[in-house]
Each structure stands twice: as structure tokens, then as C-alpha cells.
Amino acid sequence: MGNLRIVMLPYLAYGHITPFFELAKKLSDRGFSIDICSTPINLSFIKEKISEKYSSSIHLVELHLPNLPELPPHHHTTNGLPKHLKQTLFKALKMTKPQFHQILSDKKPDFLIYDIMLLWSARVASTLNIPSLKFYTVNAAIFCYFSHFYRKPGEEFPFPALYMRDYENEQMTHDVADDAEVEIDKDNLTEFDMFVLVDSSRSIDGKYTDYLWETGQAKVVPIGTRFHQDHVGNLDNNGDDMDLIKWLDMKTEHSTVYVSFGSEYFLTKEEMEEIAYGLELSNVDFIWVVRFQKGEQVALPQGFVERIGDRGRIVEGWAPQQRILNHPSIGGFVTHCGWNSSLESIEFGVPIIGIPMLYDQPLNARLLVEIGVAIEVPRDGNGNLDRVNITENIKRVISDENLRKNMCNLGENVRSRREEEMDGVVEVIQLLRDEKNAALMNK
Asked: Would you give the DSSP letter of residue 68?
């Protein structure tokens, strides 16, 4: 079923764009032609990652947000966007409906794959008789959790391993209300005949996928994991990166932890301090990627860098995460449990020390704990971190061979399902396209 043209519309966050881009490559491998539609600043991020192999099958289509004085072009992405502008960005994206209609009219795609947060785009496609499929850029377990509380408010969730603490629920409610990052559509929630792609594998959360199908909540289709070993070989060999890898080369196997909290989260002063002291007290070697927001006075504790000496490396802003995780010296990943980072950890067999921060990250952490590949650092009742808990859990994961074995086995299992799960995605695209064509013929 090659030669079909698909338009993709992800939300304007790197955590959404990355899985869309990886899905585009997998569909491209099967003969599809892909147009990824986003703002110029986000497309520049994708453009750097399109290898020669995909240059003729993956195309970038600019979507221009309206000219709003408070939202200049460099803010047409969630990356580095001040929190108070997130709602404005979401609304501005929705204002591109007429432009998106024109793009679909011009491109005449056979199919649309859209972000579940952008339900309006499916309605635009429907006016042009273009079949569409929503993509939820996290896992089936998270979809299951939120679907349950929308459909069955007040009823206990049937899987006790997944839960949110009171302070997490409050934070989630506050953030969603403030940012308007979720568009609730009651009609859409009850349409069982609509399939949903999820960024996962049955090896990770198959029981949640089964439950959603069996209870009639959603026809969830995992796209399979997406990180390949050849990604690591394709990374640039710039000087700073090579110095970091050479430093890792001198460490013993599984002796070092990698610490990173994603591209869009900034640690508070208290979090920065507890994590720093947790690393220092652990006596474990580490690479820590730190990010500082402009204008914020958050810094590492005084004397920290001098005290750790050559035992740790501080990298500001960005590090070659896949290459680091793939290094034999890495024995654990201290992470916010964002789903993209979690999938990379699974791919490279690195057990997780989970310090979730916001949104669905606590649920991701608890899913990974449930399947035996992670531990979660406990917090107090107000959500505060404690350096002693961080220290103890870093040391525990570094020495836990069973956790490492579980993670390596999971990585093997998800890799073995990749082709089969993409077959399932292609079948759904074919089914929905055939249904739409049949409906048009019967008019």
C-alpha cells in the first residue's frame, strides 16, 4: 500500500514532534510519502534530523501562526516558552484552521494523522473527505488511566499500580486549566469506532491495551518502539561530545548514572539542591545535564563542582543522550520519566531512577516500576525531594543486577515486536481509507 500521501499534524512541543517524526520514518520505510506540518521554528528542529535516506519521502510544510504581539515567531513552540504564554500558543494554533484547510486542499493527501490534542484538525479533514487517525504521543497505560476518569468519574481505577498523589492531581488540574493543553471533546471520547495510535509496544503495556479494547473505551494500536542502534552512529562527533565519551570510556562498566530532566523542564532551586547533594552523597560517577531558565537565579550549590572533581561532569543545555545511554559505563538513568526518555532507556537497557516532575510523568514512572525496570524516588506529602532518598535509590539501582536484566529483556521484547506492530498501524490506515472510500461511493 505504498505511494499513499499522509499529512501529519503534531502539537508544538518537542515531546510530541519527536514521536511523529519517528512514525513518519517508519511509514516512509514502507513506501508512504509524508508531509509534516508545523511552525517554521519547529520544522528547523526536524530538518536537522532528516537524513539523506528520507529526504525524498518526508517533506516539511510550514504552518504560520497569526501575528500576535505577545507571541513572536521564536515562541511558536513550547520549547523555552514562558508558562503564561502556553494558553496563547494553543489558541493561536487553533486559529490556523483556515490555513490548514488550504494546506489539505492543496496537498490532497490520502490520509491525516493528527495529535490527539488537536481534534479540530480531524474536523477540517472531514470536510474534505480525508480519513484521519489520532495519535496519542504517550503510552496505552496513560490513555487508559485518563479515559477511565473521563468516562467513569468516581469509580476506582482497576489497576492500583497506576495512581496520582493529591499534590500531583492538584498540579495537573492547575496546569491543564492554565495552559489549555487538552481539548476535551465529549463526542470524540465516546466514538469507539475511532482508532487511536499510541507511542508504545504491547511488551510494555499490553494489558492496558487489552482492557481498553475489551471495555469498548478505545481501539488502541501501538506503533512499536522506534529507536534504532544506527541513530547512535549517526550523531555528530563534535569536540565537546567526544570529550564526554572519552571521559565515560575511563569509567568501569555500569558505574555511572546519567541525569537529565528533559528539554522543557527547569528545576526549582530546592530540586536542584537536593539532586546535587543526592549525587554528591552517593559517591557514584555521573553526567548531569542542567538547564537554567533566562532570568531565573537558580544555580548549583556553592562548591559543588569543586567537591565532586572528576567524579561528575556537568553539561549545560544539551548532551548526546542516546550515545550516552548506549555507553557500557552507564548503569542508571535519573530521569523525569518523560515518555521519549523512557523509551530511549528501554532501547538501551538502562534501568531508571524515576524523579517525575509534572503532567503524566508520575504515571509513566509507576508503569515502569510495575513492569520491573525502574524505581521511583519517594517524596514527602507535599511533593518535596530529599537528598537521602535520591542517594539511596541511585546506589540501589547501580548495584541491582535484576533490574538491569529486566530492562535488557524488555528492550529485546520491544525490538522483536517492531515490525509486527507497524504492520498493525498500516492495516488500520488501510481499513479507515477503505471505509471512507466505500462511504463516498455509496453517497
From this structure: B
For residue 324, count CB atoms less than 10 angstroms from its CB and return exposed for 0-12, middle for 13-18, buried for 19 or more. buried
Checking DSSP bridges between strand 5-9 and strand 33-38, what pairing results, if any? Answer: parallel
CA-based end-to-end distance of the chain: 25
From edge to edge, which strands make up the β-sheet containing 58-62? Answer: 58-62, 33-38, 5-9, 111-115, 132-136, 195-198, 219-222
Q: Which amino acid is at 268?
A: T
For β-strands 256-260 and 285-290, DSSP reports them as parallel
d(CA 373, CA 391): 18
Long-range contacts of 95-102 (CB under 8 A, 24+ apart): 95/65, 95/66, 96/63, 96/64, 96/65, 96/66, 97/124, 99/63, 99/64, 100/9, 100/37, 100/63, 100/124, 101/127, 101/128
Rounded to two decimals, the pTM is: 0.91
User: pLDDT tens digit string along 304-355?
Assistant: 999 999 999 999 888 999 999 999 999 999 999 999 999 999 999 999 999 9
3-class SS of residue 333: strand
List the beta bridge partners of residue 33. 5
Instruction: Give Cα separations from 196 to 132, 288, 428 (angstroms).
Output: 10, 36, 10
Say if CB 14 and CB 45 are below 8 A apart: yes
In sequence order, the 6+-apart residues with CB closer than 8 A to the CB of 288 are 259, 260, 275, 279, 312, 313, 314, 315
Query: Which H or E element spans position 238?
Result: none
Residues 124/7, Cβ–Cβ less than 8 Å: no
What is the separation of C-alpha 145 from the centre of its chain, rounded to a whole number of angstroms?
A: 17
How does pLDDT run across 189-238, given as a tens digit for each residue?
Answer: 444 447 999 999 999 999 999 999 999 889 999 999 876 554 455 444 55
Q: DSSP per residue over 114-147, as a string?
A: EETT-THHHHHHHHTT--EEEEESS-HHHHHHHH
DSSP bridge partners of 407: none
Active site residues: 16, 115
What single letter denotes the amino acid at residue 8?
M
In this structure, how many other beta carbons lie within 10 angstroms of the beta carbon of residue 186?
Answer: 7
**Using CA atoms, how far apart are residues 144 and 6, in angstroms rounded to an integer?**
27
If phi > 0 it is left, if psi is from -120 to 50 it is alpha, else beta; for residue 36 that is beta
